[in-house]
Specification:
5-stranded mixed β-sheet; elongated; single chain; about 250 residues; two-stranded antiparallel sheet; alpha+beta; binds FE2/S2 (inorganic) cluster
Length: about 250
């Protein structure tokens, strides 16, 4: 497979960026998208040029580190992470545009790498429990209704990749924040911080400069883990409940 890549190059956070065009040849349809970028970088290094900086860690769809806008879509044409996207999704001769996440709260660090520490600060503000965990308890020690357990697991699938923010025309982090709030708020172990968690995490999200949610649904469409759009409605309900309770 021979491809033309138009890649965002930016020396550092202060420098202006621009698209640079590269040709890559000998790309296998079985390669992952990141392996294709590895091939490009090997060629750049051999030519004495600066390789393209991009984020990755597990390359197994688990860590959420890989984060590229590919042909205008967060994580590209398939509903998966960039590391799990394979070159069979493209055709020989294609031109592929590769850009970093575009959001005010995710400033570009270099090339395709963005700073997503704003997500970490949202988690720090309330994405934890204070209940003593100790050693693993018996499975039935704290009864959790099956629908609540299923809901917690569904929301816990969020890997914090930021595709929801990158896909949203408002740069909103509501889907991410709702996944992290709902994951703990539905469980008895998360009950002690149920109100402060949602209030603090939503406040922190706003402070970080994420946009407001207008329920366009692009976030849920782009999410590689399938966090559903009603998760946002559930968090809004939690937030209203918390505001009423705190004001009493
Ligand atoms: S590198 Fe870990 S999810 Fe892609």
């Amino acid at each position: 497979m021979k491809l033309t890549l138009r890649v965002w190059r930016q020396r550092d956070a202060e420098s202006p960026g621009a698209m640079a065009t590269y040709e890559v040849d000998g790309i296998s349809a079985d390669m992952s998208f990141l392996e294709m970028l590895d091939t490009l970088n090997e060629e750049l290094i051999l030519a004495g040029d600066e390789p393209v900086a991009f984020d990755h860690d597990c390359r197994e769809g688990i860590c959420g580190a890989c984060s590229l806008v590919i042909n205008g879509d967060a994580h590209g044409p398939e509903r998966t992470t960039t590391c799990q996207l394979h070159m069979r999704s493209f055709a020989d001769g294609d031109t592929i545009d590769i850009e970093p996440w575009r959001a005010a709260a995710f400033p570009v660090v270099k090339d395709l790498v963005v700073d997503r520490s704003s997500f970490d600060r949202i988690i720090q503000s309330g994405g934890y429990i204070s209940a003593a965990t100790g050693t693993a308890p018996d499975a039935h020690a704290t009864p959790v209704p099956k629908p609540d357990a299923d809901s917690a697991f569904e929301h816990a699938e969020c890997i914090g990749c930021g595709a929801c923010v990158a896909a949203c025309p408002n740069g909103s982090a509501m889907l991410f924040t709702s996944a992290k709030v709902n994951h703990l708020n539905v469980l008895p172990q998360g009950a002690p911080e149920r109100e402060t968690r949602v209030l603090d995490m939503v406040a922190r999200m706003d402070e970080e400069g994420f946009g407001g949610c207008t329920l366009t649904g692009e976030c849920a469409t782009a999410c590689p883990k399938g966090i559903p759009l009603p998760s946002i409605a559930a968090m809004n309900k939690e937030w209203l409940r918390a505001v009423r309770k705190v004001r009493r």
